[in-house]
Amino acid sequence: MSKEIYLATVKQHNTAKDLWIVIDNKVYDVTKFRLEHPGGEDSLVDVAGRDATKDFNDVGHSSEAREMLKKYYIGDLAAADRVKKSPISCRHIALALGAAAIGIALVYVIRRGVARN
Asked: What mean pLDDT value characterizes the chain?
């Protein structure tokens, strides 16, 4: 069983010499890795002591980078601190409604064009 670590504890490790981050609800102590990080030390220090999942994913890290993370794993983020993700976001709903509206408009325009000919 993995050690549960609260976000409040992670937040205390927010300096270059004591650097913890959260990625996908897993806590990593990347203090020793900061000088080796290809993106530079500052990119890790900027996310020190917090959930860096979005930052990590936005960069598009390779599978090798994800594999390297395992070396620095120290525990799981406590269940109470995990952000609950809804399966469908508002953005997804807006995109679906927009696509449906465009589809309906296209059908209407095409049928009108066919009826005129």
From this structure: 89
